[in-house]
Queue: 2 jobs
Job 1
Amino acid sequence: MADTATNGHAQSFVGTRTIRPDGVDKVTGRARFGADFNLPGQLIGRVLRSPHPHARIVSIDTSKAEALPGVKAVITRDDFADQPSEFIPAGEMMMNYKDVVRNVMAREKALYEGHAVAAVAATSAAIARRALKLIDVKYEVLPHVIDAVAAMQPGAPLLHDDLFTAGVEPKPDKPSNVAKRIEIKLGDLEAGFKAADLVIEREFKTAPVHQGYIEPHAALASVSEDGTTELWCTTQGHFIVRAHCARLLGLDMGKVRVTATEIGGGFGGKTVVYLEPLAIALSRKAKRPVKMVMSREEVFKASGPTSGATVRVKMGVKKDGKLVAAFAELKYQAGAFQGSPVQPGVFCAFAPYDIENVHVIGYDVVSNRPKVAAYRAPGAPISEYAVESVVDEIAKKLDIDPVDLRLQNAAHEGTKAAYGPKFGPIGLEETLNAIKKTEHWNAPLRKWQGRGVASGFWFNIGGETCASLTVNEDGTVSLVAGTPDIGGLRASLTAVAADELGVPYDKVRPIIGDTGSIGFNFLTGGSRSAFSGSMAIVEAAKQIKSELCARACKLWEAKPEQVEFSGGAVRPLGALAEKVKPMTIADFAKVAGKTGGPIGGVGRINAQGAGPSFGTHMVDLEVDPETGRATILRYTVAQDAGRALHPAYVEGQYQGGAVQGIGWALNEEYIYGEDGKLQNAGFLDYRMPVASDVPMIDTVLVEVANPKHPYGVRGVGETPIVPPLGAIANAMEQATGIRFTELPMSPPRVLKALKEKGLRKA
Amino acid sequence: MAKHHIHAQINGDDVEYLCETEETLLDVLRDTLHLTGSKEGCASGDCGACSVMLDGRLVCSCLVLGCEMHGRTVETIEGMAQGETLHPLQQRFLEHAALQCGICTPGVLVASKALLERNNDPTETEVRYWLAGNLCRCTGYDKIVTAVMDTAAAMRKG
């Protein structure tokens, strides 16, 4: 009676390079992303955006637009109720609905160029565009401020007259653009610096950069006459989208069903809402489906990016290389509303090091830029870039190898991090040693070439997660997860389910369920989806195995200790084995109706025990003294994965993060004119790395098991973007003798520095 | 002005459609013909997500007009697999995990196929420069380049 396909299956799929279950759809064009969904009778929605970086909205007259034939709905600030000030967790950052409602649709003021002011839904895109031109907005243009340091000065144009700096005593009596001051302290900083033989202090600047996902934001909403709402959108967290939309539009969550489409990249930038509440509001008004898709220009001007920042770092060290004191002050741009990733920036700054005396201060500063969104290890690349640059300079001054200096001071199991916890087993030293073992480490360099090393840290999170496994009538298994699959999640979860149940990989079919088909899931972010999702799958499988053992006991009139589940079957033990044959999952599926009904399990967990992931990167580059262009010649990533569920997709995270970091270090930046308008809102002028800009990215998968996870998994997605900025700056220093303290190290900036140093004739 | 009435051949099928003058080939493919495999990432010819073959030449379909297609031949990602058989590039992209989110994948595959039809033994540098018009933000390009080189090697062996 055994089904040979699932009988006693012992093969392990975890840790192998299986073909992703969603792969064929993605190589044939069949996979449906945000903008690929359409409904009969749908309208096209478009957004009117502020041309001014800072302006009071005196009035909005939509009457002419509403009168245009083909226009079915127009919305403005009047269509959204105001929200009280209340902070809620959003990914690894916090958000406030009072700000969210103002960011999706400007109220009193437009706070950045591109800020949404109104939206229309019409029977065609052409009519919608014409309607936008008929909306008459009267603005009172106000002075603007773009730079965060300028925004901190007394007398700077004020964005919010009710914003008082939090975290300072006494509470300020005047509002300012500084939303928050935070600090962490460990030990006695002053004593640490007194004991130091060498103290180095430097100031660094980084430019805001965009997540750069290739798929623009897109949403399709359909609201029926009774308020039942369906939404398809490209998001990292459809449950979070549901929560935000329900809150902003006063809807019952139970009446809102959100389906996460395939997602064309997010990197943190698709953890918030932009178009989604507008599409629902337009559809509710028009009583027809409304589809909205951002243009690339809108993506740059009105979504993302991450903060630009100014970071001052001061570190003290003994002659023998022991780091004894570390101070940093971080000023992060939040964009138009508070909530920059300065807190994780503060926490991460010195996390790779075991230093007794640490003090870090951070400021969250608003200015007339788009509100920042999370971007892969939000905040960490900025502060760790500054720290890794100073560590490199210390190594040079003390004539200690930069990897050896890091090994001497590396955080390890038992190290108390300045931000609070004591680390459990971590793999930083292993990544440093792995780098030294590569052939790359000893490869020769020529003139104008340099090699740089830097380490990086990210916390990783767990959180609320549901996943279900259902045994179908033929013994195949349906897997439902609730975190959007952004880079191979379904492959990892399927391997875990197959191993847990002892069925072949291709007998498990995974989908990402909508908000109505599975319980609440926090979003895909914080490197949590494979970590938490696999824990939920293990729990779901446990329920199935325990249920099948109970059913076998009934069928065989046996006691629980006489049966066990292994290799895809319930097996009789001892004397019972001579009387009855093992029953596979497929065997149980055939008799499910007679033995207790449908077979399945649901893991509903709040995943704890996320293990931090450390990485070390090494890069070789060559600077062209004629043009100032730096070419990346060779790159190696070593990072602790805990356990790689799917090695190829773990490598992919390392490689992709490294190349995003290369872009951040060398070319990417938001460029504003004096008029406060973004000058490079397109892929031609916002220069992300292309294939010919980069070499192969070598990877070393370090595996120091996370004891809190059944497979030892650590999140891997975010850490890879942390080390590249410092590693590349350190390589630039070796290639040119110049310590670059401002990103990006783009050709014009490098050329200017070479001329100033007399390395190139002016 | 009346819409243009166009006859074209798309993925081997004779296709007839009406379009406005300002509609791009990409608009026609996605919105009129429901061939949504070609993606719009920028609408300015910078990202390559909408790459298609037009009369045997690789183009960004966002940069040509739908009304220019009369009597012409277009090949999109939807025409790449033959029946149940994936193109060797499609198969190797899966085997090498050369995609993460997959939004750039159709354009990258169409462009890679165009390369291998011209040059069945490209160097790594040739692959990288040929694909420089196809932005990928997830993979860092490593596994894409590897998959293309590996496909070329396998196709040379026949």
Job 2
Amino acid sequence: MIGKRAAAGTVLPAGAVRATPRGRRTGVLRAWVRRHPAGAVAAVVLVAILLASGLAALVSPHDPYAQDYEALMHAPGGRYLLGTDYLGRDIFSRTLYGGRTSLLISIAAIAAGTAAGTLIGLVSGFYGGWFDGVVQRIVDVMMALPSIILALALMAVLGPRTENVILAIATIIVPSLARVVRGTVLQLRERQFVEAAKALGASDARVLSRHVLPNTIAPIIVVATNALSGAILIEASLGFLGLGTQLPVPSWGNMLSEEARRYFEQAPWMALPPGIVLSLTVLAVNFLGDALRDTLDPRLRRAHV
Amino acid sequence: MRQYLVRRLILGLAALFGLSLLAFGLIRIIPGDAVMAQLAESGNVSNLASARAQLGLDRPFFVQYVTWLGGVVRGDLGTSFWSKRPVMQDLLAALPVSVELAVFAMLLSMLLALPLGAASAARRGSGVDVGARLLSFGGLSVPHFWIATLVLLYGSIWFRWVPPLGYVSPRESVGQNLEQFIIPAAILGVHLSARSLRLVRSSLLEALQEDYIRTAWAKGLRGSRVLWGHALRNALIPILTILGSQFTYLLSGSVIIEDIFSLSGIGRYVVESITHRDYPAVQGAILFTGLVVVGVNLAIDLAYAWIDPRIRYQ
């Protein structure tokens, strides 16, 4: 986020008045990188993975669905960098395309879940009353179940389709966001600037969108980043159990599913690439999330030491 | 204290009521006969009309729910489509497997988290601290189902080791039972210790700031005694909280590990019921899990007062 801002500063037309000189902005970025070297490395790794899977169609050397019957379970090397699977499909290409599936699902789910959770939390915290009571009980119930069980149950009802994976993951992250936003709103509601806005005759919608919402952004970013690593893992777990994205469309999870596992002993190289990239991605998200929390939540900074 | 207990029980019952609605409503959200269509596809129900009657889908929602709830209160969760046994009986058979796995995993995770967490709190910024931090990030990020897959794969390639199929109770053979549980428990244990390690570290760091620690040092006590005797005891409360949530998580959340190592616990039961579209079993298992969660949370709350006499409930 910070990187994008700094870059935006550089494309301003000559002569335009800059709120902050470019030098200071890159200085802020540099200071952040120095304070959080792990976070910076994580950001770079994450961008690389996002680019590689986002541009899978351009980067991958083979068609991820093309079956080469001359080279079933071909060991890594030669024509196939990471080898081929039990149908002679290129594992490198499938890992790239799999990343596209897995990350697209996770990010879409986080976006939808964050939007819904934020809206529910805003209304619930701002108005209180019976709506709040009902929402909080529902949140209690949903949080009483392990998220994987909830996701499995939803998938069982909805059926294993890609849109449903997004829906299921979005649903399970709504409670944690709703709760955090509600807590923040409860505090903000009593603040003087909110009172002042109300006294000036601002409508509820205006108070919420212009005064309350901007102040909840920091905790939302922290919780959403945290939820992202969870979402990637849940998506992979569903694929692993054969209940997520269905083959032949590759995802990191289903490249490790029962159907593939049957061939692992004959072709152990099939087991490594999806797992390694998956771990690396989650690791990067976690490190970045840690650094962001450190930056955005000053109350935690002290306790973190 | 009694008042507190009553209030907690009422809240717990309210949560269970909500959960029963969720579990029950889940398979009925979809309009039309989508559920029936999926059932037919699964091929495990020969007579759709009788399945429909058994699920009560031919009656109004409210009547269905009250009938079901009436059974639940008497401990009757319905009959499984797949195993043709009462769901309750299946769940009670799966429970000991999940409990044993959970207890083993938690023991192993504490064996790792307590000394490492304490060492990194005592020597902040040292190599141990950095190493523990990396370990905990790794444990949080590397999916345990992938680790388990690799352990099975390379165990079989390098050592010709294959996990025993089917559950062996400790009454039959302690050795075989341990052989069955030790590897999955170790994988889960490392995964769990990622979180508990950081918690041990941070709550110890907090406890070490307290006045009574300064007093202990001033008395001339040895460092180990200050750390283990005075600080750790007071750091136990947050650790207990996480143990409680880990237990409830493991009970049904270790779905994949149970599946991979063919341990027929609660988690595996849920997955199998889902793949067989065995709706009475899915409903029952969700409610059962919720019951355990509510019960364990209550027990943990009560344990606080026992560990720290300063905590009073009203």
